Amino acid sequence: MISEHPMRRTFPALVAGALAIGALVLTTAIAPSSARTVTVDQRYPMPSTGKIAIVGHGYGHGHGMSQYGAEGAARQGLTWQQITSFYYPGTKVANGSGLVTVLVSADTSPDVVVDARAGLRVGSHAQHKGWTLPAKGTGQWRLRGTTRTRTRVEFRSGDTWTVWRIFAGTGSFYASGLPIRLRYGSTSVLYRGRLIAAFPRAGSTDVDTVNALDIDAYIKGVIPAEMPATWTPAAVQAQAVAARTYASYEKQHPRAKHYQICDTTSCQVYGGYSREHPASNAAVDATRGRILTYAGAPAFTQFGSSSGGWTSANQFPYLPAKADPYDDWSGNANHDWRIELDVSRIEKAWPTIGNLRQIRVTSRDGHGQWQGRIERMTLVGGTRSVTIGGDEFRSRLGLKSTWVSFAAAAAPRKTATSRSALPEDAADTSVLD
């Protein structure tokens, strides 16, 4: 995943009454096993209460730009050039332009359905020809595949679909720069550019919906889905440059033959024209065509919600692990966080271990508190032990990051007249839903 939205679920701050579990850390940083990994022996016995607290830093993978960090830096007066230079050291600003093709992943229907509108046209990619579609008497238009990889153009009047034209190969809707309303299920979204009915493979009768548009128009639909559009302009501009660069990288490393990039957090979130905001559009216009390059090629500009105070290294030299002084500011609830959960939640996620007796962390990335993000760990159970990566632990439990440690949950409070515990309604485990 490239990014977690900065405004997603947040967690309570650290509670002063949290208890340590046994000997929390026996030894640490015994020996570095590589440039990015340190061997540790951190053992966390499970408490008799059956509840543990997971404390952590950051939200996301930690590679590249922290979105909260970008806002923190912008609040200190840094420009977008200074922000991107900090998070992507060694990159250079260059120009990038052209079209980008985006899979509309939520449209799983076998066709492409749009509302009729003035100026709507349909194009045959094989014939390099287009036709203006009549608006009068038509409510919707759709493109459907046939058994011979041909595209059928149909219009809807009332409840009836009627064939208007059939041509070989791929077709698309467009409206000379005006937005087009795509419909699937009960959802409708406006898109700029073209909406293509793309055949995912030879002989397919179903089609994927692919949006082809200018890269700057595309970025206008990305920014408000990835960062609050009304944040400090320099932060939003830095996000625009990072997102444009990421799309430029994906264009050179396309996801599939019929599209280059997806519209989810597996790539970067894109909501089309419907998601645009005037403030973020201004940031896109202010940085129009600007991308970051390394060795003459677009950089792989990953970004995430919050670094927690340290970015994490990736395979590229411009994505190093480094201390991040900008991530910790009053509006960032993801910098430090804490949740409580039942030990049984972990046991259900890894049922072969039986009763969980101990969590043993054996390697971390070596940066920051507790020696940083977990890389390898062992769940020691009564039946068997399972060794897993930090990413798997985070994914199965829905945690914000792999930069975590463990403590006993705070003891339940007692009433003045009874020794029975109050209802345990204060723990926020919403991320585990």
Walkthrough of the structure:
This protein has helices spanning 67-75, 80-87, 215-226, 233-252, 278-286, 343-349, 390-397; strands spanning 27-32, 38-45, 51-57, 65-66, 92-95, 99-103, 111-115, 121-124, 129-132, 140-145, 150-157, 160-168, 171-174, 180-184, 187-191, 194-198, 208-214, 261-262, 290-294, 297-298, 303-304, 336-342, 356-364, 374-381, 385-389, 404-408. It has three domains: 27-59 and 334-413 and 421-432, no CATH class; 65-99 and 215-304, no CATH class; 111-206, no CATH class. Mean pLDDT is 88; it is low at 5-35 and 413-433. The chain has 433 residues and is α+β, with helices and mostly antiparallel strands. The protein has seven helices and 26 strands. Helix 4 (233-252) packs across helix 5 (278-286). The radius of gyration is 26 Å and the shape is globular. The strands form six sheets. The protein has a seven-stranded mixed beta sheet with strand order 9-8-13-16-17-6-18. It has a six-stranded antiparallel beta sheet with strand order 12-11-10-7-14-15, with no helix packed on it. A five-stranded antiparallel beta sheet has the order 1-2-23-24-25. It is 17% helix and 32% strand.
